Every structure is written in structure tokens, then in C-alpha cells.
Amino acid sequence: MHLRRLLAVPLAVPVALVALASFTQTSDASVGVGVQASPVSLGSMAHRGQRYALPLDVVNTGTEAEALSMRVERLTRGPGRAVPPSWIQFAGPAVQLAPGKAARVSLELVVPGGATPGEYLSDIVVSGAAAGQPGMGNLGVAAATKLEFSVSSAPAQGAFSFPVWMWWAITVLLLLTVTVFGVRRSGLRIRVERGSSHRDAVDHQGEPHG
Amino acid sequence: MAEYEVRVRRRRTWGVVLVGLALLIAVLVFVNKPAPAATNGGSISLSLKAVPTIRSVTVSPGTASFSNCTGGSADADTASTSDALGYPNGHCWLGAPGANGTFPIKITYQGPPGQVFVVGANASPSGGGPDWALCNPSAACTGPGGAPGVDQYMVKNFGTDTNSSTGLTGSLTCDPEFSSRGCSATQGQSEKEGIELIGPESSGSTSSSWTVTVTWAAAPPSS
Fold this sequence. Notes:
The complex is a heterodimer of chains A (210) and B (223). Chain A has 3 helices and 9 strands, in the order αβββββββββαα. With 210 residues, chain A is α+β, with helices and mostly antiparallel strands. Chain A has 2 domains: 30-157, Sandwich (Immunoglobulin-like), CATH 2.60.40; 162-192, no CATH class. In chain A, a hairpin with an 8-residue loop joins strand 8 and strand 9 (137-151). The longest helix of chain A is centred in the N-terminal third of the chain and has 27 residues, at 2-28. The N and C termini of chain A lie far apart (144 Å). The model of chain A is unreliable at 11-26 and 201-210 (pLDDT under 50). Chain B has 223 residues and is mainly β. Chain B has a domain at 56-66 and 103-219: Sandwich (Immunoglobulin-like). In chain B, 9% of the residues lie in helices and 29% in strands. In chain B, strands 1, 3, 4, 5, 8, 9 and 12 form a 7-stranded mixed sheet that branches. In chain B, strands 6, 7, 10, 11 and 13 form a 5-stranded antiparallel sheet that branches. The longest helix of chain B is centred in the N-terminal third of the chain and has 20 residues, at 13-32. Chain B is rod-shaped, with a radius of gyration of 38 Å. The N and C termini of chain B lie far apart (106 Å). The chains are: A alpha+beta (210), B mainly beta (223). Chains A and B meet through helix 1, strand 1, strand 8 and strand 9 of A and strand 1, strand 2, strand 5, strand 6 and strand 13 of B.
């Protein structure tokens, strides 16, 4: 009995400390999400019927793991049409991020063939999935960045779009054609013959002297 | 026939002057050369600040329990208890408003100057049944005296400076607690807030456990 009392104090202290530490961790827990501050934009005009990759940097700034989801929503005021949400395709349902970790996700802008030319402006909203504990007030987080681009009024390039190698091949063929025509028009004729020592000898003999 | 010897001599004067100058420069360079350090090398630490490239919002804690619930009907045996919402139109609090209030939610904005928005969402029962829809000025409450009606509820956020008199909506809207003029926020700015919840007149779900979510969002500045 006396021994049990002696052991109780040294055991109780670490147990209390562990309990306090776990309580502190719970109360310090936070949820947070961040997204690149610079707008998501294209370097050039978008063309109807084309697809464009849009990289996006996201961060989990909280102390809990997050499943980040993305959507398109117009928050920013300004000129330009709102981007139809269906134009932006996300790679998957959500991005899993550990606390403090960042990731680069790839979105895809799909401009329909019938898109109205002009400027477009919306926001990409990255949301952390709230823990969703029943009976609790769940506090969620989100971060938004601008999405801006312009759709060209030029006709859709889908019908004329070729891979790069095909452009090179077409260029080389054109150059060859022009060269052949040019040579023919100039009247020059290049004849390639096998050299003959006998003929050379005859030719030398036939040369006029004097 | 007389022989002449012609000797061509380059004048040495300029050569001597040039050599002298070169020597002088060499001596000067040598004299001005700093003495070698006593150690083999040295370094200094330079600090550099760069502008933030990420815009974020962090909320602490991630979850919290409503308490101080009041209202409801004792006659119908549906009066609120301290931690459970009663019917009709019970009130529950996360924190307390006012000068001596408590504001348990800390919202921190990081990044270049921007805005902080806040948004509510439907309350969903864990036991199945219909959600409670948010009602607010843009989605009118259908209960008595403008209180939430059947399967409706209202959520308001309040801060240390101002009380939010209007309910949250289901769309991202400016959080006025961050700035008296709009909801602008600067790097590292944090606000402490609380939440008030007003329950429905009655519920179509018999669930006794509900999930309520309020979300804060960091956004670019209004242009």
C-alpha cells in the first residue's frame, strides 16, 4: 500500500503532462489554405476549340491534413465576361495535402468552338474540406485567385492546327519547290555524267592549235 | 669608293618613361593591396525580405462546439439546454458578443493586400432527413416575426468591433469584421470572431446531431 502511494506521484505527473499536451494540441489545431497570389492567366490569346494547361500553386497552411477542392466563381469585379465553370477542368475530385505542404496542380482551360470572343475574368476558389464532425460548428477555409484570359476573334484553329513537325515538313517542301522552279526558270542545266578519260583524250586532240 | 655605315638607333627616352610608369603603377598597386586576412575566409549573413506569393487564410480552431443555448418551448418539451438547440427558434452561441464578449475563432490573413470573405452552408443532419437551409436577407426567413421557418436556420458572425446584424448567405460575401470599409485585409492581419445560430421553427429531421459549417476565404482585392 505504501509502495503504491510512492509510485502514484511519479506516475501521475507524466500522465498529467501528456493529457495537458494533448489538450494544447487540440486547442492549437488550425485549418488553413492558400493559393498563388498572382492571377492564373494565359501568356497569349486563347483560341476557340483549343485546350490550355493552367498550373496552380496551392498550400495547406493549417495543422490538419486537408483535401483541397477547386471551383470557378466570379468574386472579382471588373470588365470581362464570367468564365463558365464548365470551361475549367480539374484533374481530380480533391488534392490531399499534409499540414504545411504545397503542391502544383494542373487545371485545363477548354475553350468551346462557339465561345464568344473577348476578355474573361473569374476566380478559382480553392476550398479545404471541413472536418465535418457531427454536432460541431465546423470552420472551413478557402482562398481565391483571379483567372483571366482573352478569347481571340480569329476563326477556330482546330481545322488548321498541325503538329510542329508537320509545319517543318511543309516549309521544307515549299523551299524545295521554289528552288526547283527557280533553277528551271533561270535556264541553267546541270548535267551529271560519269567522267571518261577516252573522251577527254579525243577532245584534247580535236582542239584547234594556234 | 668610300664606305658609309648607317646606324639607326631607337630613342630610348620614351621606353624608359613607360617602363618607369609601369613600375610605379605596380608599386602603388602592391602598396594599396589589402593585407591578407588572418583567417582563410569570412562570410556575413544578409537578410532579404520578399513579397508573399501566396494568399491564404488560417482559422483556429478547426472545430468548436456551440453552447449557451437558449429559447425553445418548455411546454412542448423542446426547450434548449446549455449545449443543445431547442425548438422553435432556439439560439446557440460560439463565443459571446459585446464589449466583455468572448471571440473564440481566430482568422488570420496572409499574403498581399486582399479581402476576407465569409460564407455559410446548409446544416446537415447526421441521422438523415432534410437539411436546414440558410435564411438571411437574400433568402427570406419564413418563420414568425422573420425568424427561421421550418427547416431553415440563420447564422451570424460577430467580432470585437462590430456585430453582424445580417445572416450569412450561401455565397462568399465580405466579412465586415476585417475592415470598417469593406473587408480588406493586409499581411498578417488577424481578427477574433464568434458565431450566433438561430434554429428552425421546426425540423423535418429527427436527428439530434447536426453539422454546421462556416467558411472564411482569402480573395484578391476588389478592383
